[in-house]
Write a structure and sequence with these properties.
With 554 residues, the protein is mainly alpha-helical. Helices cover 65% and strands 5% of the residues. The protein contains 26 helices and four strands. The chain has a four-stranded antiparallel sheet with strand order 2-3-1-4. The longest helix is centred in the last third of the chain and has 29 residues, at 516-544. The chain starts with a helix and ends in a 10-residue tail after the last helix.
Length: 554
């Protein structure tokens, strides 16, 4: 599937582009001159051009504010009659805002904006997009160590133009590893801080501890209905409410890491949310009790299978309720899109805005949906040994999820960029982990039942699962990290045969533009100038033809 995606995708600017960071500073010339000199020297046959990354300044902020104000004022209808005197209510005449239809006025307005731009050399950042002639040359440049200092001239394949996260490109590359270390520590601290609500929820599921801690609840807990609500449904609801804060927090951590693309940021957030949910939702609830007891379980490695075999069946009721409250309920919310629906109602009936915002298109939330599905898969695998009654609920969930998410991906969510199957290794590794954990729990169950024959057959099963995982890592995982040269060279030859090379080069010149509004205006202005010049030249040629006499004006 990964090879089919690589070979079947049409030519894109990201296939020929390399992102370069860690450009060394020189007082003699700018970053742009350094990039051109370096790649012209070491890649003379394949280097085409480059595009520098600039620091967003005051002009960019003013342009964004002006665009927002234009969207707000565009729908405002004049409330006053056309008069020559200024209106005291509106702050001006009814023609205070007008569109510049004259090309000379547009060029004059753009020239006044260009005067506000400071020196471009001062705004250049040590990062650039470098364009190559072929895919193979771009891949070679991205995977080769460019300098004896690994912190300088760091290259990687560029993300798609719509996938670039421009604000993080200004971060110096020397700070990236510090940011990753800081966010890792922050995520671990947040994971352990979250033990407080999880242990509180776990205490609600144990009736004896709850009545002993709160004696005034003994009369209420004797009622069957209240007992079922407090120990069954309420803990999962409280846990779900607390878990709503996890994806935004992990997305913030991933942004602070310095991810250069939105897909990379979502992938990093997906891994963090997955580890967080597996630890706090599964292990902390399974190992139960206080934090001291949870840590004391791992004091003896030999007792881990036995402890898990004893603990998992006791939490079967909680996990079943969690699947119903978090799984089935999330599918219904996914269909109606509750949060966007409320935002739309607030915007239309409270703010009185009829038009949709420019960023209203929904993208698939990989960092929330993939961890949820994998967590349910882990719960299904582990509970199938001692509590198989949870399997019908999971079967209904995954059947409905297939139909619902297929509809959402085809008809609701907008794909702004292609992830290229980069989330599949996460799914594979988590599935293998779930299988191994299930086999370990089965080993503990057979140990409790004192069944040496079954235990003897379970150990080779664990080894075979690990060997299968290693085979997949050696056979398939390298394709997700590197692109095969054979496929890339064949695609480059096909482009040459079909005459697509010049079209690709034209796309490279305007694909990675940090300020698309400026480039779009300049391109429109340039095309209009070219069109007018072409019309004037055609008029002159028509006048020169025989039979076309000039008209004399008296």
């Amino acid at each position: 599937m990964r090879l089919a995606h690589i070979s079947g995708s049409p030519p894109k600017p990201s296939h020929f582009t390399v992102l370069v960071r860690g450009i060394p500073w020189s007082s003699d010339h700018s970053y742009s001159d350094s990039v051109e000199k370096f790649f012209s020297t070491y890649y003379p046959a394949s280097y085409v051009s480059h595009q520098m990354v600039f620091q967003a300044g005051t002009v960019d902020k003013l342009m964004k504010d002006a665009e927002k104000m234009y969207r707000i004022l565009k729908k405002i209808e004049p409330q006053c009659k056309e008069i020559s005197m200024p209106c005291c209510l509106c702050g001006g005449t009814t023609h205070s805002f007008k569109m510049l239809n004259n090309r000379a006025e547009r060029i004059k307005s753009k020239a006044s904006v260009d005067e506000l731009q400071p020196n471009q050399r001062e705004k250049e950042r040590p990062a650039a997009f470098v364009f190559f002639r072929t895919r193979y040359a771009a891949v070679v440049a991205a995977q080769v160590l460019q300098s004896s200092n690994p912190m300088l001239w760091v290259t990687q394949l560029a993300p798609e133009p719509c996938d670039v996260y421009w604000s993080n490109l200004s971060i110096p590359y020397k700070q990236v590893w510090l940011r990753k270390l800081a966010t890792l520590v922050g995520a671990i601290v947040f994971m352990f801080v979250f033990l407080v609500p999880v242990t509180f929820v776990q205490g609600l599921t144990q009736l004896d501890q709850l009545s002993h801690t709160f004696p005034f609840l003994r009369g209420i807990l004797k009622q069957k209905f209240m007992n079922q609500v407090l120990t069954g449904y309420l803990p999962s609801v409280i846990l779900i409410i607390f878990l709503y804060a996890v994806p935004p927090t992990m997305m913030l951590f991933s942004k602070m890491e310095g991810s250069v693309s939105r897909s990379e940021r979502k992938k990093s957030a997906c891994i963090k949310v997955l580890h967080f949910t597996i630890w706090n939702v599964f292990f902390v609830n399974v190992l139960s009790g206080s934090v001291i007891r949870q840590l004391s379980v791992f004091s003896s490695v030999r007792d881990i299978p036995t402890q898990l075999a004893k603990a998992v069946p006791t939490q079967a009721t909680f996990f079943t309720t969690y699947v119903l409250s978090s799984g089935w309920a999330s599918l219904s919310c996914e269909v109606i899109q509750l949060f966007p629906l409320l935002c739309n109602v607030f915007r239309r009936f409270i703010l009185r805005r009829e038009e949709d915002p420019s960023n209203c298109a929904l993208t698939f939330p990989y960092h929330t949906e993939i961890p949820r599905h994998l967590l349910f898969g882990l719960i299904g695998f582990t509970c199938s040994v001692m509590a198989p009654l949870i399997l019908p609920f999971l079967l209904v969930y995954f059947s409905l999820a297939f139909l619902i998410y297929r509809n959402q991906i085809l008809n609701v969510y907008v794909s702004k960029y292609e992830s290229g199957g980069q989330f599949w290794p996460i799914v594979h590794n988590t599935t293998i982990f779930s299988l191994v954990l299930t086999q370990v729990i089965a080993l503990g169950v057979f140990g409790i039942k004192i069944s040496p024959v079954a235990s003897g057959f379970t150990i080779p099963l664990i080894l075979l699962t690990l060997l299968f995982n290693e085979y997949c890592r050696q056979r398939f995982y390298p394709i997700f990290k590197r692109s095969p040269a054979q496929v890339l060279i064949e695609m480059d030859r096909q482009d040459e045969q079909w005459g697509k090379v010049e079209e690709i080069y034209n796309q490279l010149r305007s694909a990675y533009c940090q300020f698309p509004s400026i480039s779009q205006e300049l391109s429109i202005a340039g095309s209009s100038e070219h069109h007018e010049d072409k019309e004037s030249s055609e008029d002159l040629e028509s006048l020169k033809k025989p039979g076309n006499e000039p008209v004399k004006i008296k």
